[in-house]
Amino acid sequence: MNIVEITGGDDVTVTVYFDQFTKLPTRQIHKRRNTEYHDFDTLVSAYAKYRDVGGGVQWPLDIHRERNGDKIYEMYRIRHNQ
Prior knowledge:
This protein is an all-beta fold. The protein has strands at 2-7, 13-18, 25-34, 39-52, 58-67, 70-76. It has one domain (2-76).
């Protein structure tokens, strides 16, 4: 697993985890300040089941997102047409 941390000009850091064989992202963690409660929200995105969608572009067919441990988004593509 390769890990890359990207820090923006506003000191927000995104950590991306890449598969060491495919070099595709498998997980992303983003922490941002919650302006209402003055603490941090942790946003986690997980990507799986990559498929070639044309022109050599790999796209995840399974995407899962959480905010502070609660599921907020989930997408599954069941069938991949060639």
